[in-house]
UniProtKB/TrEMBL annotation:
Gene3D superfamilies on file: 2-enoyl-CoA Hydratase, Chain A, domain 1
GO biological process: L-valine catabolic process
Keyword Hydrolase on entry: yes
A GO molecular-function descriptor: 3-hydroxyisobutyryl-CoA hydrolase activity
Domain of life: Bacteria
Keyword Hydrolase part of the UniProt annotation: yes
Pfam families, per database record: ECH_2
Domain annotation Enoyl-CoA hydratase/isomerase: ranges: 14-340
InterPro entries: ClpP/crotonase-like_dom_sf, ECH_dom, HIBYL-CoA-H
Record-given protein name: Enoyl-CoA hydratase/isomerase family protein
Lineage, opening ranks: Bacteria, Pseudomonadati, Pseudomonadota, Betaproteobacteria, Burkholderiales
Keywords: Hydrolase
Length: 355
């Protein structure tokens, strides 16, 4: 179904290879469908004991959804997006749910850039990070919010780490990913030959145990997040984005100063929406998180914030997004809550069948 997805079965393992290197494996609708089709075909196939998903290159596992597509399709009918945008998010979130509840071991080799949609097709499985891993949920940078289940897995990170990662959209490395619980194993590139041999030689059903034994001998090093954990918890437990900013302004440390600089470039509205999203996600299961996000993404396209963000950072590259509202002070609680207003009655929700 997609020239960018290659699948094969060997030694009891179904292999999915993302092969769109020029776009850092950004997911198109065809790619989402091809991955879903493979997983559904292998789910009840006795010849497949496990699934491995990886990239054809070490530069990127998956940089997210195809945001150029979102921009072009979303501009077609700005108030509602287009049918293809609607299909993309419905089918992508359905794939995320399938990964979370896949009945066989599902292993993601998260080489290079792993952001947004790349997290969505990895977080439900056994997650391997490397020296090149650059992980983030950076959606607030383009006027979106951490979706693909972000409300679920960020809300379950220790302390206030989920709020920090979601509201700022900062990039972390392998050690940080392990520290936050967003990765399971570290595989150094210097030992890649051994990892590849293990993945090839081990029968599918035996891969989780073999990977645990392999990873026990490797250390990803010290986590920067761990070093800043006290400050992150102190500031990002403040209760709201304005309160977080006020708290950071009382701190003269390099961490606080740099964090304020980063937040000043993000969409004020979507930082506040993200904070509310993670707060709500803590009380929801995977399916309800995805249903919440699916409605929220519709509201986001109606609002137009993501269209402007992609224009400024990807299309025109002027890096001068005209956020609406333009300042954090102008964001009201009513604006935030309106983004969470139901779009469909429960019986008509496009993800109503997720269990």
């Amino acid at each position: 179904m997609s020239e960018y997805i290659h699948t094969s079965v060997s030694n009891g393992t179904g292999l999915i290879v993302l092969d769109r290197p020029k776009a850092l494996n950004s997911l198109s609708l065809d790619m989402v469908r091809a991955i879903t089709q493979a997983l559904l075909a292998w789910r009840d196939d006795a010849a497949v004991g496990a699934v491995v998903i990886r990239s054809s290159s070490e530069k990127a596992f998956c940089a997210g959804g195809d945001i150029r597509f979102f921009y072009e399709a979303g501009r077609t009918t700005p108030q509602n997006g287009s049918a293809l945008v609607e299909d993309f998010f419905t089918e992508e979130y359905s794939l995320n749910h399938l990964v979370h509840f896949y009945p066989k071991p599902y292993i993601a080799l998260m080489d290079g850039v792993v952001m947004g949609g790349g997290m969505g097709v990895a977080q439900g499985g056994v997650r391997i990070v490397t020296d090149k891993t650059k992980m983030a949920m950076p959606e607030v940078n383009i006027g979106l919010f951490p979706d693909v289940g972000g409300s679920y897995f960020l809300s379950r990170a220790p302390g206030a780490l989920g709020f920090y990662l979601g509201v700022t959209g900062v990039t972390i490395n392998a050690a940080d990913a392990l520290y936050t619980g967003l990765a399971d194993h570290y595989a150094p590139l210097s030992d890649r030959t051994a990892l590849d041999a293990l993945l090839t030689a081990t029968p599918g059903a035996g891969l989780p145990g073999a990977l645990s034994a392999y990873a026990a001998g490797h250390n990803a090093g010290d986590s920067t997040l761990a070093a800043n954990r006290a400050a992150i918890d102190r500031h990002f437990r403040a209760g709201s984005v304005p309160a977080i900013v006020a708290s950071l302004k009382t701190d003269s440390s390099d961490f606080a100063v740099k964090t304020l600089e980063v937040m000043a470039t993000r969409s004020p509205l979507m930082m506040c929406v993200t904070h509310e999203l993670i707060k709500r996600g803590a009380a929801l299961d995977v399916a309800d998180c995805l249903r919440m996000e699916r409605a929220l993404v519709r509201r986001n396209f109606e609002n137009g914030e993501v269209i402007e963000g992609v224009r400024a950072l990807v299309i025109d590259k002027d890096n001068q997004p005209k956020w609406n509202p333009a300042t954090l002070e102008a964001v009201t609680e009513e604006m935030v809550q309106a983004m969470f207003a139901p779009v469909w009655p429960d019986y008509a929700h496009p993800l109503r069948h997720l269990g």
